[in-house]
Design goal:
Length: about 375
């Protein structure tokens, strides 16, 4: 096992490309980035610790076939920074971290690889606590935990809380209710048309909340099995071929990006018909300035890391003895937090994303004071 930023051999492109990515000035001052490699199992992973101002960094492990190691580093840096803000806004005593494992989980994920990854996380001595993310599941965390006690998101049979997507979806639903309250004066989605892009681990739970509340739901996903799992059970749910069609639907009230990041960019914002964007995906804004474009078009954006914090609330609680109702009560407060962000944005004359950043940054700055 090789640890540390010196592990930049055998990369796609030159080592300089990876180091340049690590030290870019727009990455927000990460405390530590660890590149892990285990030749025996094929493990290549990046662990990014953005901040420990509020406590040990907490964030999931993404398993994804990145085009290059530099792309993996970039994603880890962006995701870990987002976790610092998410944990701060959720009121957790945790900083932000994230890990990515490079490769197709369908092809290379093995028990030995996960155990090697667990040893990598354990070598940090608790500065980073890992959990599930895209491409990793509760069963994977059970394996990682055999080598690393700083693992959460485990199965109930192994002392964990199980699937965190349930509370993630619940929190996003609370963010939607708050958005509806702010824009239309009523915290319900009844009679509103909501487009959900991505109906996997979190998205399909979100659809259930929306249907129970009386919303009209239209869905899309790159995986047809995920789409038909919902459509077969709920024939009233509409289906479109792709996200490009979804965002252009006439009469769309709310757009919920629930897949990978970067859903909100120059092209999609220009074509978006919805009046509210509120979804579970991380890093929805492709670049700085998109939040202003949304605001200029009169589209209310509920910051992703605020509304999708239900899952991290759950995995953080697991570290202290999980109680579902306690977590659900905490996740329900996302409604009030989202309303407070909209109020701050109006007061300061800034987009909601900027208002959320200010509130989170203030909490982290206060924690750093002696």
């Amino acid at each position: 096992m090789y640890l540390g930023v010196t592990t930049v051999t055998d990369v796609t492109g030159s080592p300089d490309d990876v180091l340049h990515t690590l030290f870019r000035s727009d990455q927000g001052g990460h405390e530590q980035v660890v590149l892990c490699q285990d030749r025996a199992t094929g493990l290549k992973a990046v662990i990014a610790i953005h901040s420990t101002a509020l406590g040990p960094a907490l964030g999931g492990t993404r398993f994804y076939p990145y085009a290059s190691e530099a792309a993996a580093v970039t994603d880890a840096l962006n995701l870990s920074r987002g976790m610092s803000y998410k944990n701060a806004m959720a009121g957790l005593d945790h900083g932000g971290g994230k890990a990515v494992i490079i490769g197709d989980p369908e092809q290379i994920k093995t028990e030995d690889l996960l155990l090697a990854y667990g040893r990598c996380v354990a070598s940090l001595g608790g500065r980073y606590v890992t959990a599930c993310d895209v491409g990793t599941y509760v069963a994977d965390m059970d394996v990682v935990a055999r080598e690393c006690r700083w693992t959460t998101g485990r199965s109930p049979e192994n002392g964990g809380a199980g699937d965190s997507s349930v509370l993630t979806a619940f929190g996003v639903f609370q963010g939607m209710r708050a958005s509806a309250q702010h824009l239309w004066g009523d915290p319900t989605l009844r009679g509103r048309t909501v487009g959900v892009a991505g109906v996997g681990k979190v998205g399909h739970h979100l659809v259930e909340h929306l249907l129970e509340d009386g919303a009209q739901v239209v869905i899309t996903d790159v995986r047809q099995d995920a789409v038909w799992r919902i459509a077969d059970k709920n024939p009233a749910v509409g289906v479109v071929a792709d996200t490009e069609r979804l965002i252009r639907i006439e009469g769309l009230d709310i757009y919920a990006p629930c897949a990978l990041g970067g859903a909100l960019n120059d092209a999609s914002v220009a074509e978006l018909t919805a009046k509210i964007v509120c979804g579970a995906a991380n890093n929805q804004l492709e670049h700085a300035g998109v939040e202003k474009d949304l605001s200029d078009r009169g589209i209310l954006y509920a910051p992703d890391y605020v509304v999708n914090a239900g899952g991290v609330i759950q995995v953080a609680d697991e570290l202290h003895g999980f109680d579902f109702e306690r977590c659900r009560t905490k996740a329900a407060k996302i409604f009030d937090t989202t309303l407070a962000i909209f109020a701050r944005a109006k007061e300061d004359g800034i987009p909601p994303a900027a208002a959320a950043d200010r509130i989170a940054e203030h909490r982290m700055a206060e924690a750093r004071r002696p």
